[in-house]
Amino acid sequence: xxxxxxxxxxxxxxxxxxxxxxxxxxxxxxxxxxxxxxxxxxxxxxxxxxxxxxxxxxxxxxxxxxxxxxxxxxxxxxxx
Length: 80
Known about the structure:
The structure is a single chain. By secondary structure, this protein is an alpha+beta fold. It has two helices and five strands, in the order αββαβββ. Strands 2-1-5-4-3 form a five-stranded antiparallel sheet. The longest helix has 30 residues, at 2-31. The chain starts with a helix and ends with a strand.
């Protein structure tokens, strides 16, 4: 009985974490964009790509790939 209760609690926590991440990335992808330092193109990421973009340790900066020139590196998150 304790095993089943523990599995249900773990599943509930996992579902809540996924919902939180989905809402968090949805808010950021609607209100922000990136600017490529090489070609100066402005682009937005999908929710999935934003969720998996690596943080650099600097506030509001991620390692992403520019869809225009293919540059992969640090880019700041810019508010719309």
